[in-house]
Amino acid sequence: MSDIYGFDAFAPKDISERVKNIGVAKAGLPWLSVLMLGVLAGAFIGLGGLYYVIVKSDPLLSFAASQLLGGLVFCLGLLLVVVAGAELFTGNNLLVMAWAERHITTKQLLKNWLLVCLGNFIGASALACLVFISGHTEMNQGLIGETYLKIGVIKCSMPLWQAFFKGILCNVLVCLAVWMAFAGRSVVDKAVAIVFPISAFVAAGFEHSIANMYFIPLAMLEKYAAGQGDATMQALSWAGFLHNLMPVILGNIIGGGVLVALVYHIIYRRKAVLAPGKE
Questions:
Q1: I want to staple 190 with a disulfide (CB 3.0 to 4.6 A). Which of 42, 89, 181, 249 is the partner?
Q2: Residues 94 and 261: beta-carbon distance below 8 Å
Q3: Four-point Cα dihedral 181, 185, 190, 191, nearest 10
Q4: The domain spanning residue 199 has which CATH number?
Q5: Has residue 125 been placed in a domain?
Q6: What is the membrane topology here (predicted)?
Q7: Mean pLDDT across the stretch 189-195?
Q8: How far apart are CA 180 and CA 193, in angstroms?
Q9: Distance CA 92, CA 253 (A)
Q10: Is the dihedral of CA 192, 23, 124, 126 positive or negative?
Q11: Contact indicator for 197, 111 with CB cutoff of 8 Å
């Protein structure tokens, strides 16, 4: 129980039970609700990305200050997902816990991931279009737009193996943030739990598949609007987008689904599978 830790929070074993129960509930939601909640989450993460780029576009900041402040403001995205309510693909990798305990089927797991990922893409890319049309990227004498271009080129040019491992590391931290948010009983608790892991993954330059669904489409819009066709921009395309997205998604699944959800399942929930009702 949480009281043995001396503070008002759920203990890790209690969190595992909550994650399992919420995973079952998520798998049972109607497909339209899942899709719409996925759209919201994609837009929410995109808003975190927008906030991040404002910081990154300031050339007066040192590298460390830029990375740290950018990571802190990016936390807006997951705060909105957790507190306002939405379905985020990377966070839903925790459904592996309910799957490992045989409370949901493989079909239900994959269906949820597919619908949520699709909804996330719609929300993130739609926000990218709205931000571009609004003229936001012209701020700071056009440095906002230039920053999106730089981010997009770097992501689309990244070697597959690097994108994969950065995806793993990213979602270990994201799912730990979500896991710890389940320990909290208040909005403040959840915010504190989220800020440090999320700011750490952003500051470290790890790869989040849903954030990239916002960054790369907006960078492509900037590229086409600017008419830039030089060699440095060639990677910034739909092919480059998929080149980044596929290994990052796979890495995110392993990071969150295996290294967080499955590991905690083995630690806290495995007995429930081996001997139901005799934990």
A1: 181
A2: yes
A3: -170
A4: 1.20.1080.10
A5: yes
A6: Multi-pass membrane protein
A7: 96
A8: 6
A9: 9
A10: negative
A11: no
- pLDDT tens-digit profile of 228-260? 656 678 889 999 999 999 999 999 999 999 999
CA distances from 101 to 51, 79, 108, 138 (A): 38, 28, 13, 50
Number of separate domains in the chain: 1
Residue 279 resides in a domain = no
Instruction: Give, in order, the Cα–Cα distances in Å from 146 to each of 49, 139, 158, 221, 222.
Output: 15, 10, 18, 12, 8
Boundaries of domain holding 196: 9-274
CA atoms of 248 and 161, how far apart (whole Å): 9
pLDDT in tens, 145-170: 999 999 999 999 999 999 999 999 99
Q: Is the pTM of this model over 0.85?
A: yes
Name residue 57's amino acid. S
Instruction: Evaluate whether residue 1 is within a structural domain.
Output: no
- Residues with Cβ within 8 Å of residue 29, at least 6 apart in sequence: 37
- d(CA 270, CA 157) in angstroms, rounded, equals 41
Buried b (16+ CB within 10 A) or exposed e, 190-206: bbebbbebbbbbbbeeb
Cα(200)–Cα(78) distance, integer angstroms = 13
**Residue 8 zone, left/alpha/beta (φ > 0; ψ -120 to 50; rest):** beta
Residues 6+ apart with CB under 8 A from 64: none
CA distance 265 to 272: 10
Distance CA 276, CA 279 (A): 7
Of 232, 211, 228, the residue nearest 153 (C-alpha): 232
Contact, 94 vs 179, CB < 8 A? yes
